[in-house]
């Protein structure tokens, strides 16, 4: 049951540190080597893979978008990510050397199931990332990596998403390890960084009061925009999806670099814009670009809600509201940056009087095409 929480969604948000830790459990040995028992595709076959295609819907699709950055960076294998509902109707190019990764919390999403059936008919190997033991999608796949989020009851996906990300990183790292890439040292470092992620998510959850207060103060707004770059772009899309489905508000996520190609025309006085800022360490060029994006929208009246890593002082002068997340490597940042967006959407929806566990018109598992 709800264990004292007002909703399943709040309970599931709070369970994320454990869900993340459980999904990592037993998959990395003492020497930092990955072992994925449920991936029953022989290493020899994985070494021959020349393309990865991720198929999924909704929030799971956003996990796939983030997976692409990790897979291409750590394995150097080209990776496409496609909405399952689009994939099968466009005659995709697939063969025995294609690895299709189907991501689904429920394991019953019809569009994703149809996409994986189509992929297998073309000879591709399918690896499912799934949260529901024995469900249809893993049963019909060549291999499965289960996420250990535990049952997710609320329609809006939260803890399943974070564990899907963990599973995607594990797949990317495992592929990198099996094939051997020049990123061997980096892979070892990331394996170490992943073990600290559960604590980082816990830390974010402990600092959410100002986010809840901000959400309540914006309950009367009609529109909220979300911006990000690199892996922050799918995080922005996820923040917008949460707000749509829970608060029934117009919410849109954009790649920050696209602003000047159209969306900046939407900016008006006091429009809330959430910006996911990448770490200033590592890929600093991304960081500097987004700081100028924040300046550009603020100059046009936007109310900037900035999610930035601790110690990033460069963004502070341009943030009307600053939400701090612990420092992580850039590729792992979605694990911490998504959490405030979940809390924001849940609180805003509640302030509007909406039923957060069961939003109107939606079902937890979409078993029709
Ligand atoms: O069970 P699945 O992961 O296959 O579900 C996919 C989507 O229907 C799901 O993520 C949906 O977008 C959520 N309601 C989002 O919060």
UniProtKB/TrEMBL annotation:
Keyword Membrane: no
Subcellular location(s) of the protein: Cytoplasm
Domain SIS: 41-181, 214-359
GO molecular function, one term: carbohydrate derivative binding
Keyword Transferase carried by entry: yes
Catalysed conversion reaction: D-fructose 6-phosphate + L-glutamine = D-glucosamine 6-phosphate + L-glutamate
EC number(s) given by UniProt: 2.6.1.16
UniProt record, GO biological process: carbohydrate metabolic process; fructose 6-phosphate metabolic process; protein N-linked glycosylation; UDP-N-acetylglucosamine metabolic process
Catalytic residue list: 364
Position of the signal peptide: none
Enzyme class: transferase
UniProtKB keywords: Aminotransferase, Cytoplasm, Glutamine amidotransferase, Repeat, Transferase
A GO cellular-component term linked to this record: cytosol
Function: Catalyzes the first step in hexosamine metabolism, converting fructose-6P into glucosamine-6P using glutamine as a nitrogen source.
Subunit annotation: Homodimer.
Name of this protein: Glutamine--fructose-6-phosphate aminotransferase [isomerizing]
Organism for this UniProt entry: Streptomyces coelicoflavus
Shown chain mapped onto the complete sequence: 247 to 615 of 615
């Amino acid at each position: 049951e709800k264990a004292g929480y007002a909703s399943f969604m709040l309970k599931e948000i709070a369970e994320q540190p454990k869900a993340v830790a459980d999904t990592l459990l037993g998959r990395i040995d003492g020497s930092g080597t990955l072992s994925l028992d449920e991936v029953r595709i022989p290493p020899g076959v994985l070494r021959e893979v020349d393309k990865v295609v991720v198929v999924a819907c909704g929030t799971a699709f956003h996990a796939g978008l983030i997976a692409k950055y990790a897979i291409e960076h750590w394995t150097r294998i080209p990776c496409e990510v496609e909405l399952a509902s689009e994939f099968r109707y466009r005659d995709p190019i697939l063969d025995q050397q294609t690895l299709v990764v189907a991501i689904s919390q429920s394991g019953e999403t019809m569009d994703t199931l149809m996409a994986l059936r189509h992929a297998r008919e073309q000879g591709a190997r399918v690896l499912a990332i799934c949260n529901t033991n024995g469900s249809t999608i893993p049963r019909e796949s060549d291999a499965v990596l289960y996420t250990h989020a535990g049952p997710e009851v609320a329609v809006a996906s939260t803890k399943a998403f974070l564990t899907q990300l963990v599973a995607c990183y594990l797949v990317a790292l495992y592929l990198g390890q099996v094939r051997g890439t020049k990123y061997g040292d980096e892979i070892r470092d990331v394996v170490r960084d992943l073990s600290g992620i559960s604590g980082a998510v816990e830390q974010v959850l402990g600092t959410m009061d100002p986010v809840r207060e901000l959400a309540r103060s914006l309950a009367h707004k009609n529109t909220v925009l979300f911006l990000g770059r690199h892996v922050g772009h799918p995080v922005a899309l996820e923040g917008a999806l949460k707000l749509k489905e829970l608060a029934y508000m117009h919410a849109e996520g954009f790649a920050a670099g696209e602003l000047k190609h159209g969306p900046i025309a939407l900016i008006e006085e006091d429009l809330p814009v959430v910006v996911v800022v990448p770490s200033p360490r590592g890929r600093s060029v991304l960081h500097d670009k987004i700081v100028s994006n924040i300046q550009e929208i603020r100059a046009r009246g936007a109310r900037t809600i900035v999610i930035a890593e601790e110690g990033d002082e460069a963004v502070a002068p341009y943030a009307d509201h600053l939400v701090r997340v612990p420092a992580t490597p850039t590729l792992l940042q979605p694990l911490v940056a998504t959490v405030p967006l979940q809390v924001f959407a849940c609180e805003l929806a509640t302030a509007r009087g909406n039923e957060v566990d069961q939003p109107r018109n939606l079902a937890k598992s979409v078993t029709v095409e």
